[in-house]
Design goal:
290 residues; globular
Length: 290
Amino acid sequence: MNQVQEKELGVLKEVIKVIEVNDLHYCAIGGTCLGAVRHKGFIPWDDDIDIVMPRKEYEILRRDLYKQLPEHLKKLDYDTSESDLLLFTKFHDIRTTMIEKTVIGFPDRFTGAWVDVFPLDGRPDNHFCRKIWYVYYIFLMASNTRRRYPKAKIESPRGLIKELYGSILKKFFRYNFFTDALFSFLSKYDISMTETAIWNGADRLIAKKYNYDMSFESTFFTDTISVPFENISIRIPRRYHDYLTTHFGDYMQLPPENERGKLHDICISDMEKPYSYYAKLISEGKIDLK
């Protein structure tokens, strides 16, 4: 376990403590679940932790219970960052620094070592209804992005159309209008009532990028067991073999060495200094990351 992973594990311990004390539920997903099964902890080259919670419980944690976390842990979501376009919450250690290259220019999205917490949503079981669901989801997602996105440099006709659309939305809709509408829309299908579950409606978007589906059987995440993860225990699907096979295929097979890189493009990583230290240097022009 490297220094970044050690700090992230510390964040996870505190988040799990709040979840369990308040009788809520969570489940490790993605590389975190895979690491628990294959490595009994972090995948050696992994650089983050991912867990999911049913939408209603996620909102309780995101809106209120996060205040029970220690003072050095803060949340990053659309409530705390005007430029945040994500549909999930990061809980991070403000005493550390992990700044992604994609957020340079947006200091309100700078973070320390983090844990990602995703809301779990259902979706229509009927194929036709699901297609309509996706169309409306993509409309809300695109509108939310354009309403929240700062004014961009126009470099193409497509960019001009996006900027004009964003200008109209900024004029007629309050800042969080589409974010709230999106979350309300996604919450309509509880995972206890649907055959499949997704996080953030993301299967259509992330599947295209990573070439795999992000929708899974709802029961993967409602029926969990506790397993070792480094020096703690975490919850993963009881049917973890089925889940991991759906997500990764032959998950016990290590990928080629050239595919074992970190998932995030981190431009500043420092587990000894707070990200506010680097934010100040960047704002003063003492660090040029372009």
